[in-house]
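Journal club prep — side note

Before the paper discussion, L.F. wants everyone to see what a predicted structure for a comparable chain looks like in token form. Sequence:
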Amino acid sequence: MTAACASLTADCINPFVTSTVTVFRTMAGCELRCGKPYLVGETKGAHEISGVIGLSGKALGTVVLSLGGPVALRVTEAMLHELPAKIDSDVVDAVGELTNMIAGSAKAQLEHLQMSLSLPNVIVGHDHQIAFPGDVTPIGVPFDCSWGPVCVQFGLSEKGN
């Protein structure tokens, strides 16, 4: 991993932690409790449904918001004021939008990297694979809330000058 996020430093982690906590509080009225950041060994989605968004600019990277199924349903209910019976297109759209908001807020806090966001993709299913740039060891930050588990994984690689 290169200088953009070379280690588990506050400068690297805080934009993603604060963005995730703020977006969940604002959009879903949900308070998250942050766990201990870790280096991601496997590139599998941490939970059943994951929003994935790419970053490009002075750094390249990927941000993943991974939610347990019950959390995804409850977040969608908070956003749309109706509880979906199952993971459907409304849930996929809600997870994609949350991923976009989290990545966008973190990007703004890392403005020195002048990054742009791709469109979010959402993957549903257990043990789905997530691809990060080849030279990146992603960082994962687990969260918990009254609805269940949430995890944000991200990896950035600064481009050579």
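L.F.'s comment for the group: The beta strands are 33-34, 38-39, 49-56, 59-67, 116-117, 121-124, 139-145, 148-158. Keep this in mind when we get to the figures.
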